[in-house]
Design goal:
57% of the residues lie in helices and 11% in strands. It is an alpha/beta fold. Belongs to the cytidylate kinase family. Type 1 subfamily.
Length: 208
């Protein structure tokens, strides 16, 4: 069984993906980390706007070396959104994601183009969202908890900018797949969101 979870930044899709993967005993891939890692590489090189450098970073990316804790900063979130808009970067990472999804037994993948591009035939598709204000509040708490000194207003502005860039990009824009179920987590806590997501997946498993 392949579960595809898409949605904008800080919607809760990553948390739900991890919980569903644990529940079903499936491997999980946060595809956003791939783009954050590419962004980190080109930022360190001072070449964030250099598409060739980003493509090369994507082609040589060592997935085993990814460190989620160091990649979840506000700066790398912005860098990820920049490099993810480049078609060459997405193409370089496409095969890696396909191979992950094709593992025996299935997998859970979350990102922004899983249900539309990476796994269009996934058995269960969710599009997880929340209002920009709620998502900014969540991300702000996360960043403050990691020791970053950043204002809520700056986080909200970044969320809105990333939403616009992700939705408007030519390469695999953020859109809800026609057969994905919309899950708005604005008024839900983690436990409630997981129960709602599990209900959706179980309904798809039963073919309803």
């Amino acid at each position: 069984m392949v579960i595809a979870i898409d949605g904008p930044a800080a919607s809760g899709k990553g948390t739900l993906a991890r919980r569903l993967a644990a529940y079903y005993g499936l491997p999980h891939l946060d595809t956003g980390l791939l783009y954050r890692a590419v962004g980190a590489i080109v930022l360190a090189q001072g070449r964030l706007q250099d598409e060739a450098a980003a493509v090369e970073a994507a082609r040589t990316l060592d997935v085993a070396a990814l460190d989620p804790d160091t990649l979840r900063t506000a700066e790398l979130g912005e860098a990820a959104s920049v490099v993810a808009a480049r078609g060459g970067v997405r193409a370089a990472l496409l095969d890696l994601q396909h191979r992950f999804a094709a593992q025996p037994g299935g997998a859970v993948l979350d990102g922004r183009d899983i249900g539309t591009v990476i796994c269009p035939k996934a058995q269960a598709k969710l599009f997880v969202t929340a209002t920009p204000e709620v998502r900014a509040e969540r991300r702000h708490r996360e960043l403050i908890g990691r020791g970053e000194d950043i204002a809520y207003a700056a986080v909200l502005a970044d969320i809105r900018k990333r939403d616009e860039r992700d939705s408007a990009r030519a390469a695999a824009p953020l859109v809800q797949a026609d057969d994905a179920v919309l899950l708005d987590t604005s008024a839900l806590d983690i436990a409630q969101a997981f129960e709602a997501a599990l209900t959706i997946v179980e309904a798809r498993r039963r073919g309803s």
